[in-house]
Design a protein that fits this description.
This protein is mostly helical and 123 residues long. It has two helices and two strands, in the order αββα. The protein is 64% helix and 6% strand. The relative contact order is 0.17.
Length: 123
Amino acid sequence: RLIRKKEVTNKISGYWKMTGQVEAIQERLESDMDEIALLGDNIINGNFLGSYSERDSLSGIRFIEVYPGTELMTNEKNILINLANKVSRLKRRIDNFYFNNLSHLKGLAVDLIELIKNEYHLK
């Protein structure tokens, strides 16, 4: 009600809709990462895990280092393949959906800021 310019309200609405989609993807990815971590707890000895990386500037994701020469707690082929499949699927989701949607959301935010500046003569 405070914003009367239809184009601005439409862009704000589109931005918030996209924000909801990105949050839904993020929740799914966090669930997938928790599942992978639980599976990994039965495969990789925690003594061979290093520190977390710095957060990615766009996504906020942090990865943990696995030292070279890591000893596995199991050599069960199907369990190892299952973990590799889950990690690969997570990586594809991050690359194909999450990053693309974050980039799109950032573009919407930049466009919205410029529109508001222009419509309301702000600097």
